[in-house]
Amino acid sequence: MFKQKWRQERSNHIMLLPGVVFLFLFSYVPMFGIIISFQKYYPTKGFLDSEWVGLENFQYIFDLPDFSRVLWNTVFIATMKIILHLIVPIVTALLLNEIRSALFKRSVQTLIYLPYFLSWVILAGILMDILSLKGIVNQMIEALGMQSVFFLGDNNWFPWTLIISDTWKQFGFDTIIYLAALTGINPTLYEAAVIDGANRWKQTLHITLPGMAPIIVLMMTLSLGNVLNAGFDQVFNLYSAPVLESGDILDTMIYRIGLQDYQFSVSAALGLFKSLVSFVLVSVSYGLAYRFANYRIF
Amino acid sequence: MITRTSWSRRSFNLVNYAILILLSALCFLPIVHVLALSLSSKIQVTAGNVLFWPREFTWASYEYVASQGQFFRSMGITLQRVVLGTVINLALTLLCAYPLSKERGDFRLRSVYVWYFVITILFGGGLIPWYLTIKNLDLLNSIWALVLPGAVPVFNIILLLNFFRRLPKEMNESARIDGAGDWRILLSIYIPLSTPALATITLFTVVGHWNSWFDGLLLMNSPDRYPLSSYLQTVITMPDLSKFTDPEMARVYNLISDRTTRAAQVFVGMLPILLVYPFLQRYFIHGIVLGSVKE
């Protein structure tokens, strides 16, 4: 009986084998590699012979004068992104929903989700030009008689440049998700509302928004897991020495300590700190998504 | 349905159209502007005369981009990684999604495997242990370093397995009665039935590999092994025309500046994506809905 069942299921195991092996090599082995954050790791000595130092590396990080500022930058930038990534797409979807012309609707959708597909290398190239002091944006600002702004070199502006340009890249994609939820709303609800004398605004408030509520709750809970993800690709391509103060985030700090200063153990310790906090956040967010939006990843 | 177009409704519509046109312009015009810069001469660009149409039209910036031997070497490496990476990603997505889409009764260890996959989403080793792992596997500087570490796209597997679960079970059962095994069912029933999902995943994978730049920067020791995105990353964020001393190109040199060449590099980097974009958008609304809205 057991043998027969095993034969029936054998092909499942064979199919999964390559995926299991690759995940083991490139996801699980690095998890074991975390031990170097408790060592004074030298590549020549390897994992086994490097000296154990306990929590010294963590002590070192938490004592760094930059640490609290970088942590604040990360949380601030990420949180602002999360908020705008919720509001802007929802509003855009509601506005698009009021459009009758299918052609116009489709054209707007096509244009607004284009930036989503471009990498931060490309988008940084564009932003570095249009936001420079001689760029087209400052030309317009000056034409309006205002002082030009160094968006990428001024600590007051840089975090907001990151937050808004990231929303610019992402909002078209999220808008589609909300629009998809809107198509699921039963049209008879609107007809009934019209008969009851509800105007468009009342319809939006009492039918459209409640109809979107499940997906909004889902997106809110899932985004909680991103509180420490301020966007490495974006910051790495846009930041420079003058804006380290306002734009340096955990991920860029991990990169610089590890791969520019070659302090492998310190960098790994900082990475572990981030992974652990993120693990808690993502677990909580999945838990909440399951509880409130009945969402399961598998 | 009878609707009365009131004055307030008309003015709302007007504002609404204006906002949406503005949003579209914000996403589209920067690209047009960069294209115009790349096709204009240095003098016009520096003078700030170029908006959305090239002034003193010239291909000089593109000639400069093409004069860099590294550009074509990197393009070759990128083509390699896109083909290899997409084939491997797709094969593994199919092979993992099929067994994981089964019910527990048909595959007892399913939940063990599911956890094995989910844990990798929840927790990771971080940058340095990941880098050291690839180094210790002796993959640095080889094309496999760009392809194998991301060989198992867990999110795509989830996407596809949810699609598989919605296929009618009766087909599966009758195929089994006719004597088909798991491999046959996957190849002859599941794959043909899920072409829209597979098209979405393929296009996303191709775009992902094309755009991926950080792994190349990190895992290739010498710049002549960089894929195109990594090469573009270095030249776009640190433009340097001083290396450009070929006397035969003096004519070109007078027409270009850091800004025009960067614009050209940016445009070359996004061109393939603009070309596949019509296909992308045809499938991908479907693809997103597939992943985000479940019963």
Give a verbal description of the structure.
- Chain A has 298 residues and is mainly α.
- Chain A has 14 helices and two strands, in the order H-E-H-E-H-H-H-H-H-H-H-H-H-H-H-H.
- Chain A has a two-stranded antiparallel ribbon.
- The longest helix of chain A has 31 residues, at 2-32.
- Chain B is mostly helical.
- Helix content of chain B is 71%, strand content 0%.
- Mean pLDDT of chain B is 87; it is low at 291-295.
- The relative contact order of chain B is 0.13.
- The chains are: A mainly alpha (298), B mainly alpha (295).
- Chain B: Pfam families: BPD_transp_1.
- Chain B: It is found in: Cell membrane.
- Chain B: Keywords: Cell membrane, Membrane, Transmembrane, Transmembrane helix, Transport.
- Chain B: One of its GO terms (cellular component) is plasma membrane.
What are the defining features of this structure?
heterodimer; A: mainly alpha; MetI-like fold; 14 helices; B: 295 residues; mainly alpha; 15 helices; 71% helix
Structure summarized in a few sentences:
Chain A has 298 residues and is an all-alpha fold. Chain A contains 14 helices and two strands. Chain B has helices at residues 7-38, 42-46, 60-67, 69-100, 110-122, 127-136, 144-147, 154-165, 169-177, 182-193, 195-211, 214-219, 228-237, 250-253, 258-292.
Q: What is the CATH topology of chain A?
A: MetI-like fold
Q: What is the CATH level 1 assignment of chain B?
A: Mainly Alpha
Cα shape of chain A: globular
Write out the strand line-up for the largest beta sheet of chain A, numbering strands in chain order: 1-2
This entry's quaternary arrangement is: heterodimer
Helix-strand makeup class of chain A? mainly alpha
Report low-confidence residues of chain A grouped into runs of 5 or more: none
Helix/strand layout:
The complex is a heterodimer of chains A (298) and B (295).
Chain A: H1 2-32, E1 39-40, H2 46-49, E2 51-52, H3 56-63, H4 67-97, H5 102-112, H6 120-130, H7 136-143, H8 158-183, H9 187-195, H10 200-223, H11 232-238, H12 244-247, H13 250-260, H14 264-293
Antiparallel strand pairs in A: 1-2
Helix pairs in contact in A: 3-14, 4-8, 4-10, 5-8, 6-11, 8-10, 10-14, 13-14
Chain B: H1 7-38, H2 42-46, H3 60-67, H4 69-100, H5 110-122, H6 127-136, H7 144-147, H8 154-165, H9 169-177, H10 182-193, H11 195-211, H12 214-219, H13 228-237, H14 250-253, H15 258-292
